[in-house]
Amino acid sequence: MKIAVIGTGMVGRALAGRLLELGHDVVIGTRDPGQTLARTEPDFLGNPPFAVWQETHPAVRLAPFAEAGMHGEIIVNATLGEISLQALEAVGAANLAGKVLLDLAMPLDLSEGLPPKLLYANTDSLGERIQRAFPDAHVVKTLNTVFTQVMIDPARVPGKHNIFVAGDDAEAKETAKGILRDFGWPADVIIDLGGIKAARATEMYAQFYFALVGALGGSFDFNIAVVRA
Amino acid sequence: MKIAVIGTGMVGRALAGRLLELGHDVVIGTRDPGQTLARTEPDFLGNPPFAVWQETHPAVRLAPFAEAGMHGEIIVNATLGEISLQALEAVGAANLAGKVLLDLAMPLDLSEGLPPKLLYANTDSLGERIQRAFPDAHVVKTLNTVFTQVMIDPARVPGKHNIFVAGDDAEAKETAKGILRDFGWPADVIIDLGGIKAARATEMYAQFYFALVGALGGSFDFNIAVVRA
Questions:
Q1: CB contact under 8 A, A207 and B224
Q2: What's the pTM value of the predicted model, to 2 decimals?
């Protein structure tokens, strides 16, 4: 499949790399490819510059947002939550229309450090905002409850543990589940939380998630399993 | 121990019954015992009237909030979140001072049905509000991530699954952990999330929890396990 990953950070790179490995034709979208490639310093999270990463992934093409959007039959939003709407605006509503849009972003407000607050919560969510802004896209909120490395390699966490999808379009959720299965998530651990409104649930989980990170001594390398009576 | 359970609903009854079973001297606090006992109809959640429950638990005494507060060496807030602050005000700041106050309540806004919204979230929590309102109490947020029956009988959910504590007072958290262990929570599944600010984490988890309830076909009989890589 032709897939566009929007965002050149840790999540975007990991997703793009994994999708490439799975045989997809992957383009990463960024505002200004020249500027992205010209960076020589690690980003604010300590990730090496994009150009360094791309040396080991020459098959992943970097393109301006709109060009990436045109390329992708599936679009993956892997931007920081605070700029997701802006970035997707640059990708272009026409390039999102009728397509599956996997929204992995968290609307984190890091202005006061960790644990983060959310930019909005409780009565709204980033997933819903994206769906409202691009009503012709089929937004599926998923993978936003785990750390990057767990997203693309769930087996690094032992045993059964769960991942979630939320979205209004049933077919788009099936496409999303297919990608999750390709990443290594067994079909029976993928829980469908319902419509895109349930993005609130997994986004608000972020405060719990970061509290767990603290309790686990700073490790992000975990997930939760739903255990039934 | 002398324990006051504030609230005569499903959670209050279950907690009081279990604490009695464990050998504690339990008083349930209510606004007006005469009125509580006079009710002959099920409550809005379908629970039988309190008087019916008390027939099978004659050793649990019903008392006005303030009297219950005087009785309790430990206070358990098992009221609905929307009335918790009012109820604890009636218990009395003097009766809470220096005591462990286990806060089990969820600040649910059920005005638009299920899944509930929260009355406040993200930048505040009920746990923090209670701690601010009663600075001399040692508030520990706990048990608010599971259904009543799981709170007092974790073994009904098979295998390892977790429960959380959050509070500013380390000694109070140890007392809380002791009660959790008495309820059947093994020591190694109790996760300390830090100060009372982490009440935000477990309260915001509520939207995720109710989304899971929906995904599991309406069952509340589950919990989550944190699985580490």
A1: no
A2: 0.96
